[in-house]
Write a structure and sequence with these properties.
alpha/beta; Rossmann fold; 7-stranded mixed beta sheet; two-stranded antiparallel sheet; 9 strands; binds glycinamide ribonucleotide; Formyl_transf_N; phosphoribosylglycinamide formyltransferase activity
Protein backbone atom coordinates (compact mmCIF):
# COMPACT_ATOMS: atom_id res chain seq x y z
CA UNK A 1 0.00 0.00 0.00
CA UNK A 2 1.45 3.38 -0.98
CA UNK A 3 2.12 5.76 1.87
CA UNK A 4 0.89 9.32 1.76
CA UNK A 5 1.19 12.30 4.12
CA UNK A 6 -1.38 15.08 4.37
CA UNK A 7 -0.34 18.64 5.30
CA UNK A 8 -3.08 20.86 6.79
CA UNK A 9 -3.33 24.10 8.78
CA UNK A 10 -7.02 24.37 9.63
CA UNK A 11 -10.25 22.45 9.88
CA UNK A 12 -9.05 19.63 7.66
CA UNK A 13 -12.32 18.78 5.92
CA UNK A 14 -10.32 17.67 2.87
CA UNK A 15 -8.12 15.56 5.14
CA UNK A 16 -11.32 13.99 6.52
CA UNK A 17 -12.64 13.29 3.02
CA UNK A 18 -9.40 11.41 2.28
CA UNK A 19 -9.58 9.52 5.60
CA UNK A 20 -13.17 8.51 4.79
CA UNK A 21 -12.39 7.01 1.38
CA UNK A 22 -9.36 5.19 2.76
CA UNK A 23 -11.45 3.75 5.59
CA UNK A 24 -14.22 2.70 3.20
CA UNK A 25 -11.64 0.96 1.00
CA UNK A 26 -12.36 3.14 -2.06
CA UNK A 27 -8.89 4.65 -1.94
CA UNK A 28 -6.08 2.16 -1.57
CA UNK A 29 -3.50 4.14 0.36
CA UNK A 30 -1.98 4.33 3.79
CA UNK A 31 -2.31 7.80 5.35
CA UNK A 32 0.92 7.53 7.31
CA UNK A 33 1.17 11.03 8.71
CA UNK A 34 -0.48 14.41 9.22
CA UNK A 35 1.82 17.43 9.16
CA UNK A 36 0.23 20.48 10.80
CA UNK A 37 1.69 23.91 11.52
CA UNK A 38 -1.14 25.01 13.86
CA UNK A 39 -1.16 23.17 17.20
CA UNK A 40 -4.85 23.95 17.89
CA UNK A 41 -6.12 23.01 14.42
CA UNK A 42 -9.11 20.69 14.19
CA UNK A 43 -7.17 18.64 11.63
CA UNK A 44 -5.04 17.32 14.51
CA UNK A 45 -8.16 16.02 16.29
CA UNK A 46 -9.23 14.32 13.08
CA UNK A 47 -5.82 12.59 12.90
CA UNK A 48 -6.10 11.46 16.53
CA UNK A 49 -9.62 10.12 15.98
CA UNK A 50 -8.42 8.14 12.96
CA UNK A 51 -5.25 7.00 14.79
CA UNK A 52 -3.02 8.68 12.24
CA UNK A 53 0.32 9.89 13.62
CA UNK A 54 0.83 13.64 13.42
CA UNK A 55 3.81 15.96 13.44
CA UNK A 56 2.59 19.31 14.78
CA UNK A 57 4.86 22.34 14.94
CA UNK A 58 4.88 26.13 15.23
CA UNK A 59 7.06 27.93 12.71
CA UNK A 60 7.89 30.54 15.35
CA UNK A 61 9.79 27.90 17.33
CA UNK A 62 12.30 27.62 14.49
CA UNK A 63 14.72 30.23 13.19
CA UNK A 64 14.26 29.30 9.52
CA UNK A 65 11.94 27.43 7.14
CA UNK A 66 14.90 25.15 6.42
CA UNK A 67 15.02 24.19 10.12
CA UNK A 68 11.40 23.02 10.39
CA UNK A 69 11.34 21.50 6.91
CA UNK A 70 14.41 19.43 7.84
CA UNK A 71 12.36 17.92 10.66
CA UNK A 72 9.34 17.41 8.41
CA UNK A 73 11.56 15.70 5.84
CA UNK A 74 12.93 13.35 8.48
CA UNK A 75 9.35 12.43 9.48
CA UNK A 76 8.33 11.84 5.85
CA UNK A 77 11.30 9.55 5.33
CA UNK A 78 10.83 7.74 8.63
CA UNK A 79 7.27 6.91 7.53
CA UNK A 80 8.30 6.01 3.97
CA UNK A 81 6.00 8.64 2.46
CA UNK A 82 5.80 8.56 -1.35
CA UNK A 83 3.21 11.26 -2.07
CA UNK A 84 2.60 14.51 -0.18
CA UNK A 85 -0.92 15.95 -0.22
CA UNK A 86 -1.34 19.61 0.74
CA UNK A 87 -4.89 20.14 1.98
CA UNK A 88 -5.28 23.69 3.27
CA UNK A 89 -1.60 23.96 4.30
CA UNK A 90 -1.09 27.70 4.35
CA UNK A 91 2.70 27.84 3.91
CA UNK A 92 4.96 27.89 0.90
CA UNK A 93 6.97 24.70 0.50
CA UNK A 94 10.69 25.48 0.56
CA UNK A 95 13.74 24.01 -1.18
CA UNK A 96 14.42 21.49 1.60
CA UNK A 97 11.21 19.57 0.86
CA UNK A 98 11.15 20.31 -2.87
CA UNK A 99 14.64 18.92 -3.39
CA UNK A 100 13.44 15.50 -2.19
CA UNK A 101 9.79 15.52 -3.19
CA UNK A 102 9.27 17.75 -6.26
CA UNK A 103 6.83 16.01 -8.59
CA UNK A 104 5.44 14.13 -5.59
CA UNK A 105 3.79 17.08 -3.79
CA UNK A 106 0.30 18.14 -4.85
CA UNK A 107 -1.90 20.99 -3.67
CA UNK A 108 -5.58 21.85 -3.87
CA UNK A 109 -6.53 25.49 -4.33
CA UNK A 110 -10.01 27.05 -4.27
CA UNK A 111 -9.89 28.94 -7.58
CA UNK A 112 -9.22 28.39 -11.26
CA UNK A 113 -5.50 29.09 -11.23
CA UNK A 114 -3.79 31.24 -12.36
CA UNK A 115 -6.73 33.37 -11.19
CA UNK A 116 -6.83 34.27 -7.49
CA UNK A 117 -3.63 32.62 -6.17
CA UNK A 118 -2.44 32.88 -2.58
CA UNK A 119 -4.53 33.65 0.45
CA UNK A 120 -8.33 33.95 0.54
CA UNK A 121 -9.04 32.87 -3.04
CA UNK A 122 -12.75 32.75 -2.24
CA UNK A 123 -12.76 36.35 -0.98
CA UNK A 124 -10.75 37.39 -4.03
CA UNK A 125 -13.30 35.82 -6.41
CA UNK A 126 -16.20 37.52 -4.60
CA UNK A 127 -14.44 40.90 -4.55
CA UNK A 128 -13.74 40.61 -8.28
CA UNK A 129 -17.43 39.77 -8.90
CA UNK A 130 -16.16 36.84 -10.97
CA UNK A 131 -18.75 34.83 -12.87
CA UNK A 132 -16.68 31.68 -12.54
CA UNK A 133 -14.28 30.27 -10.01
CA UNK A 134 -13.54 26.68 -9.05
CA UNK A 135 -10.98 24.22 -7.81
CA UNK A 136 -7.47 23.47 -9.06
CA UNK A 137 -5.30 20.50 -8.15
CA UNK A 138 -1.69 21.06 -9.15
CA UNK A 139 1.88 19.95 -8.54
CA UNK A 140 3.81 22.16 -6.17
CA UNK A 141 6.88 24.09 -7.28
CA UNK A 142 8.76 26.92 -5.59
CA UNK A 143 6.15 29.54 -6.55
CA UNK A 144 2.85 30.51 -4.95
CA UNK A 145 0.27 28.22 -6.61
CA UNK A 146 2.24 28.15 -9.86
CA UNK A 147 3.07 24.47 -10.47
CA UNK A 148 1.79 22.34 -13.38
CA UNK A 149 -1.98 21.89 -13.28
CA UNK A 150 -3.36 18.37 -12.90
CA UNK A 151 -7.06 19.10 -13.11
CA UNK A 152 -9.57 21.93 -12.67
CA UNK A 153 -13.30 22.01 -12.06
CA UNK A 154 -15.45 25.11 -12.52
CA UNK A 155 -18.05 26.65 -10.24
CA UNK A 156 -20.48 29.37 -11.34
CA UNK A 157 -21.00 32.20 -8.88
CA UNK A 158 -24.62 33.25 -8.36
CA UNK A 159 -25.52 36.92 -8.17
CA UNK A 160 -26.23 36.64 -4.46
CA UNK A 161 -23.27 34.35 -3.75
CA UNK A 162 -21.89 34.65 -0.22
CA UNK A 163 -18.58 33.55 1.19
CA UNK A 164 -20.34 30.69 2.94
CA UNK A 165 -22.28 29.50 -0.11
CA UNK A 166 -19.20 29.60 -2.36
CA UNK A 167 -17.11 27.89 0.29
CA UNK A 168 -19.71 25.10 0.47
CA UNK A 169 -19.82 24.62 -3.30
CA UNK A 170 -16.03 24.50 -3.47
CA UNK A 171 -15.71 22.08 -0.57
CA UNK A 172 -18.30 19.77 -2.13
CA UNK A 173 -16.18 19.55 -5.28
CA UNK A 174 -12.89 19.26 -3.41
CA UNK A 175 -14.04 16.40 -1.22
CA UNK A 176 -14.83 14.25 -4.28
CA UNK A 177 -12.14 15.45 -6.67
CA UNK A 178 -9.09 15.22 -4.40
CA UNK A 179 -9.53 11.55 -3.38
CA UNK A 180 -10.24 10.61 -7.01
CA UNK A 181 -7.08 12.34 -8.24
CA UNK A 182 -4.96 10.87 -5.46
CA UNK A 183 -6.16 7.43 -6.53
CA UNK A 184 -5.09 8.11 -10.13
CA UNK A 185 -1.71 9.51 -9.08
CA UNK A 186 -1.00 6.48 -6.89
CA UNK A 187 -2.03 3.91 -9.47
CA UNK A 188 -1.24 5.45 -12.85
CA UNK A 189 1.48 8.05 -12.29
CA UNK A 190 1.49 11.65 -13.42
CA UNK A 191 -1.11 13.80 -15.10
CA UNK A 192 -0.81 17.37 -16.38
CA UNK A 193 -3.82 19.24 -17.73
CA UNK A 194 -5.91 16.09 -17.52
CA UNK A 195 -3.44 14.06 -19.63
CA UNK A 196 -1.03 11.37 -18.55
CA UNK A 197 2.60 12.39 -18.49
CA UNK A 198 5.83 10.54 -18.03
CA UNK A 199 7.39 13.59 -16.35
CA UNK A 200 5.80 12.98 -12.98
C1 LIG B 1 -9.59 24.28 1.01
O1 LIG B 1 -10.70 24.87 0.41
C2 LIG B 1 -8.36 24.44 0.14
O2 LIG B 1 -8.66 24.51 -1.23
C3 LIG B 1 -7.81 25.75 0.63
O3 LIG B 1 -8.00 25.74 2.01
C4 LIG B 1 -9.21 25.03 2.29
C5 LIG B 1 -8.92 24.09 3.44
O4 LIG B 1 -10.13 23.56 3.91
N1 LIG B 1 -6.42 25.89 0.29
C6 LIG B 1 -5.84 27.05 0.00
O5 LIG B 1 -6.41 28.12 0.03
C7 LIG B 1 -4.37 26.93 -0.36
N2 LIG B 1 -3.87 28.16 -0.89
P1 LIG B 1 -10.11 22.31 4.88
O6 LIG B 1 -9.12 22.62 6.01
O7 LIG B 1 -11.51 22.22 5.40
O8 LIG B 1 -9.70 21.11 4.08
Amino acid sequence: MKRIAVFASGSGSNFQAIIDVVQSGELKADISLLICDKPGAFAVQRANAARIPSFVFSAKDYSTKEAYETEILAELKRHGVELVILAGYMRLIGPTLLREYQGRIVNIHPSLLPAFPGKDAIGQALAAKAEWSGVTIHYVDEGMDTGPIIVQERVRLDENETRESLQNKIHAIEHKLYPAIIQVLLTQGGIVNGKKTSTY
